[in-house]
Amino acid sequence: xxxxxxxxxxxxxxxxxxxxxxxxxxxxxxxxxxxxxxxxxxxxxxxxxxxxxxxxxxxxxxxxxxxxxxxxxxxxxxxxxxxxxxxxxxxxxxxxxxxxxxxxxxxxxxxxxxxxxxxxxxxxxxxxxxxxxxxxxxxxxxxxxxxxxxxxxxxxxxxxxxxxxxxxxxxxxxxxxxxxxxxxxxxxxxxxxxxxxxxxxxxxxxxxxxxxxxxxxxxxxxxxxxxxxxxxxxxxxxxxxxxxxxxxxxxxxxxxxxxxxxxxxxxxxxxxxxxxxxxxxxxxxxxxxxxxxxxxxxxxxxxxxxxxxxxxxxxxxxxxxxxxxxxxxxxxxxxxxxxxxxxxxxxxxxxxxxxxxxxxxxxxxxxxxxxxxxxxxxxxxxxxxxxxxxxxxxxxxxxxxxxxxxxxxxxxxxxxxxxxxxxxxxxxxxxxxxxxxxxxxxxxxxxxxxxxxxxxxxxxxxxxxxxxxxxxxxxxxxxxxxxxxxxxxxxxxxxxxxxxxxxxxxxxxxxxxxxxxxxxxxxxxxxxxxxxxxxxxxxxxxxxxxxxxxxxxxxxxxxxxxxxxxxxxxxxxxxxxxxxxxxxxxxxxxxxxxxxxxxxxxxxxxxxxxxxxxxxxxxxxxxxxxxxxxxxxxxxxxxxxxxxxxxxxxxxxxxxxxxxxxxxxxxxxxxxxxxxxxxxxxxxxxxxxxxxxxxxxxxxxxxxxxxxxxxxxxxxxxxxxxxxxxxxxxxxxxxxxxxxxxxxxxxxxxxxxxxxxxxxxxxxxxxxxxxxxxxxxxxxxxxxxxxxxxxxxxxxxxxxxxxxxxxxxxxxxxxxxxxxxxxxxxxxxxxxxxxxxxxxxxxxxxxxxxxxxxxxxxxxxxxxxxxxxxxxxxxxxxxxxxxxxxxxxxxxxxxxxxxxxxxxxxxxxxxxxxxxxxxxxxxxxxxxxxxxxxxxxxxxxxxxxxxxxxxxxxxxx
Length: 957
Ligand SMILES: Nc1ncnc2c1ncn2[C@@H]1O[C@H](COP(=O)(O)OS(=O)(=O)O)[C@@H](OP(=O)(O)O)[C@H]1O
What we know:
By secondary structure, the chain is an alpha/beta fold. The chain folds into four domains: 39-153, no CATH class; 164-380, Class I glutamine amidotransferase (GATase) domain (Rossmann fold, 3-Layer(aba) Sandwich), CATH 3.40.50.880; 391-655, Glycoside hydrolase/deacetylase (TIM Barrel, Alpha-Beta Barrel), CATH 3.20.20; 685-949, Rossmann fold (3-Layer(aba) Sandwich). The strands form nine sheets. It has a nine-stranded mixed β-sheet with strand order 7-6-10-11-19-18-17-14-15. Helix 1 (17-38) packs antiparallel against helix 27 and helix 14 runs parallel beside helix 17. The longest helix has 24 residues, at 915-938. The N and C termini lie close together (11 Å). The protein binds 3'-phosphate-adenosine-5'-phosphate sulfate (PPS). This is [heparan sulfate]-glucosamine N-sulfotransferase. Belongs to the sulfotransferase 1 family. NDST subfamily. Its EC number is 2.8.2.8.
């Protein structure tokens, strides 16, 4: 057998990341395409059983109509889409179905089913072909009749843009990216940036699948100025896939007037304007916006001025009007000085070239522009980028009865808070402030407790209360055994004072212990048994606010908290003037207003000190809720905190599982980590698998190096830690770090080997979050050999399944096979679909952090493999593995000179694979191996010799 070629570490040649991503997508989607072809003629449906939200499972019996109902209530749902087998009961012979096509959903009657054409495709197998997690929003306008019995079907033949927008800038740099990141990031819309001179490929060619739901120009001038090639690339893409263009303008840096004769539009820049009015005659676009509302004040132009549009073609429809500001000195022809005589936002309805465009006369900073842009992107993306219309609001006021006398609650504060509830209830039915209390502080006040605080107790029923700790202390100062005492004392205080406490919701002082997880807190909560939800600012990081996320840990729902804008402001100016200012800012679309626009489920936090004395925060909330009610059609509701928490995780089901990060990497998290405990240390290197490729040999050989140290032996674990790929991840980072011995010195490099990390879909992201610098070693041998080795492993363990079925029966099992056989089928073959798993790792790690080992070479020539691996790890001193490893003729494998050969479970001798299985597997892996070649090419990595040989040769025995 010829010697396998060395799989060298790839060169450092820079490959544009966009190119790589595209290739990855091509590889993964190539697979889909092949399957699609293979299953041509089958009905292709959205499998509603796969909807990520738990609640939708309940609707399975009700089928799609129930889901449709939900869509109408919420206006959008996030659904995971994949092909399901043609016998899916959701498809009937003649029911009308709505097909998601490039120009939105349309209803049609599917062709008669032909059972002869239908082939079963197990959904759990198919889902593996979607490593890139293709998600998109399906937008069904609110006005669609509720009673229509429509079934939702995705036909892969239609060209579906992904839930991503491409943002084109003249130059991609931090300052130009920032406003776009904020606008789209706050709505959790994924964006990719491109420079005007190098627009990336817009289509996955092999599939004719569009990559973007929307094209965005931060400055429309850039679009007009594109060179011919780039321009037609964009235009042809938009025409072919029904994708729209959303443009902003930047009138501060350019000449006074631009004429684009091609588009029959004139743009007059550097305008100073006053007032804005939306065009109420536009019927199909306004969703959040209330077109009947008129803004009368001068338009802000501190940083940039405004652009107005003069359009001379029926394709254009004015979206918003404004008026020349008094004192504007320009004298340009065509400027209509009448009230609302100028157009500041325009829509191109596509009569000229079939492309829908919306162009705004400034950036999204001004609040009405922000709303127009939100409605615009919902429209242009056929709802895929739309948010629901409901906003759930909770406002927590922490620190009741805490603080020095100057910031303690005064009678006027107590009165003001009651009033605040009433005023906000005009806009948010049933609204009540949530007050977090700390009993000990009140009692310390004793008779001296402020009169205002005593009044708060009298007014208790006007609010909803939740527990802080009894004392307002950092948890790491509080000895563990006092935590439960402090919790129950606070509860007793609440009872004594007859506070209407929602005991299921609790906030810890300083947010300590929630994230990073302080296991003792969750222990105590578990003991209490009733804590269901909390919230924190700290997960995964504080800024930007829209980056905050939630997670569920040990049954407790942890929600992200938004901070009120006034949170950090000192109350040094006059209270009422300050309050009014805050309200004005909200009314004019300030910071809080945008949070409300973009965040469907909000928990705000503020402190008592923002109410006491200054009473500022109440103005802010009154201001923002009034502004939202005034300017938008959004519906604000104030649910019970536990209902709100449940809703949160239904809306963001991907957040249920936490993503642990390293507290040492973030100053805030470091601060919250206990002072009396050293920071956890994690491994630097992972041997990720897959199983049966020689991972044990590689680990054993690494351990011959004096400075490479792996996890401690643990009888409760079966050989491997498997932290990232199992429920053990829920144990948290303390648990993981404690699996490893202390480092002997600075040169010690900790590593871990768990062979199922490679193919586990969540592992790459989890590793990236906790150990972003980790070096990942992946071994790939012939996947047929790998599958057979797994079979022999089961056989050696007298697995009942193997006693029942032959290797051939397992690998050829189809959808009709018994459940156990189907599971066995997947376990044998799934790990060997290397391209899919590798592309997932490459989405999270740069190629330089991944090291691919040729598994066949590891068997034949481990000395050179190990010498290279130690270089990749960067461990010192360098050792020569020639002095450590030698071939053992009895074992038939290389073994360590000191510790000997691997046990009888590795390097077994067994009969050759039968010819039929060999042929079947060669065929099964053929396309997957082709994909692997494409993927390796895209990262400029040489092909292992077994991959070069797979087409022609037999699978090695
Ligand atoms: N030096 C050396 N000694 C023994 N075995 C070696 C060696 N190098 C590679 N191999 C191959 O490793 C296969 C077992 O792979 P893993 O260690 O990854 O298996 S496991 O997933 O941890 O169970 C094992 O599979 P089997 O031959 O089927 O037992 C071997 O082919």
